[in-house]
Amino acid sequence: MKENIENLKAEVQLEIPNITNLKQLMDFKVTYLGKKGKLSELASEIGRLANSEKKEAGMLLNDFKNFFNDIFETTQKRLEQVALDKKLEDEWIDVTLPSTKISVGTIHPLTLVIDEIEELFISMGYDVVEGPEIESDLYNFEKLNLAKDHPARDMQDSFYITTEMLLRTQTSPVQARTMDSNKDKTPIRIICPGKVYRKDDDDMTHSHQFTQIEGLVVDENISVAHLKGTLEVLVRKLFGDDREIRLRPSFFPFTEPSLEVDVTCFKCGGNGCPLCKQTGWIEILGAGMVHPNVLRACGYDPEKYSGFAFGMGAERIAMLKYGINDIRHFYVNNMNFLDNFDRLEKEDTNESK
Ligand code: PHE
After folding, report:
1. If you take atom 4 of ligand 1, which residue's CA is the nearest one?
2. Predicted structure pTM score
3. Does one domain contain both 159 and 262?
4. Using a 6 Å cutoff on CB, does residue 145 contact ligand 1?
5. 188 close to ligand 1 (CB < 6 Angstrom)
6. Which of 192, 231, 242, 280 is 20 to 30 A from 131, alpha carbon to alpha carbon?
């Protein structure tokens, strides 16, 4: 037995340098210590030995087991280290290599215009209010003094979903909703940006979906002077400190008087150029004093309260401000257009620093 064990030890020592990975090591262990392994083979011979020899044989087998396990452990550690070294070698990263360029998103020109207008009005104490894009006939038209036979209700202009529901054609229903939910509380000072929808054929200046920004102030003794002062602040913020505005009579069902607001051309300063079609003036928004019928329909006594409202197309403002010639640019996610535009913005902010 002793000889057999010595031979087995020698065999192990001879073979161990040939083992190069953990899998081989495990198989190796099974070969020697496994149920049907070489050690078991020897152990099965104990039965055949004389009683006096059995004890020593048992100790020898145990001794082999310890011998094997020691070698196994050191080899296992060595192979694990080899595996780790290989992994580190394979997965080595050169942190000094130049990185791949990450393209940073830019703020959409429409968002920039909306943010600028919102910021201005928030600084003057206005709240930003939003309303539903799927609107009822009641709020989109009726409460805004749009009689049933008003042309703006024509199926050609509006996307109706049912006879009572439609995609809002303007942000003015948010005025009515706000007044309705405040009922007699003043002052109301709100600005409402949002998408609106009209059955227009898309071209350079028309889109079936566009963005309006609505303003509303309701309080006691609000006059056209307040409206004019507010719009002057707005126009100077958007187009420069030297801008003047001009109010022209117009018609909206929900305002009386109604006004069309022009700004002195920021390209030629008012002398006349192609942008202002040689008139010196550019039309930018619609406005007026809230019609008494609207105040009444929304729970405000027109004898006591008055208000002004204005509404503008965010796309039109952005087109004028940044010299964009086609409204469709806003909706097609052309990265060349958007990146170019962002550069203009950055130059702008750098200059003002
Ligand atoms: N809602 C009007 C439009 O879509 C604009 C407007 C708003 C006019 C508020 C006056 C007052 O044309």
Report:
1. 170
2. 0.71
3. yes
4. no
5. no
6. 231
* Region 98-109 average pLDDT: 85
Is the domain of 40 the same as that of 129? Answer: no
CA 268 / ligand 1 centre spacing (Å)? 27
Residue 5: C-alpha distances to residues 47, 98, 306 (Å): 16, 61, 110
Whether pLDDT at 102 is above 60: yes
Domain membership of residue 102 (yes or no) is no
* One domain, residues 188 and 218: yes
The CA 252 to ligand 1 mean position distance, Å, reads 7
Give domain status of residue 99, yes or no: no
Q: Which of the four pLDDT bands, split at 50, 70 and 90, describes residue 346?
A: low
Domains in the chain, number: 2
Query: What are the tens digits of pLDDT across the range 195-219?
Result: 999 998 999 999 999 999 999 999 9
Q: Are residues 139 and 58 in the same domain?
A: no
Model pLDDT, residue 251:
92
Q: In this predicted model, what pLDDT tens digit does every residue of 266-288 receive, in sequence order?
A: 888 888 998 899 999 999 999 99
The CA distance from 338 to 330, in Å, is 9
Distance CA(194)–CA(185), nearest Å, equals 24
Secondary structure (DSSP) of 151-219: GGGSTTT--BSSSSEEE-SSSHHHHHHHHHHHSS---EEEEEEEEEE------SS--SEEEEEEEEEEE
Residues 206 and 64 in one domain: no
Q: Whose CA is nearest to atom 7 of ligand 1?
A: 311
Structural domain that includes position 72 = 2-90
253 lines ligand 1 (CB under 6 A): no
Residue nearest to atom 6 of ligand 1 (CA): 311
What is residue 352's predicted lDDT score, i.e. its pLDDT? 45
Please report whether residue 282 resides in a domain. yes
- Is 104 a member of any domain? no
Q: Is 263's C-beta closer than 6 angstroms to any atom of ligand 1?
A: no
Q: Is the CB of 255 under 6 A from ligand 1?
A: yes
Looking at the fold, whether 83 and 116 belong to one and the same domain comes out as: no
Instruction: Kindly indicate the confidence band of residue 339, based on its pLDDT and cuts at 50, 70 and 90.
Output: confident
Q: Which residues contact 78 (CB under 8 A, 6 or more apart)?
A: none
**Rounded Cα gap, residues 144 and 100, in angstroms:** 55
Q: Is it the case that residue 181 has pLDDT exceeding 90? A: yes
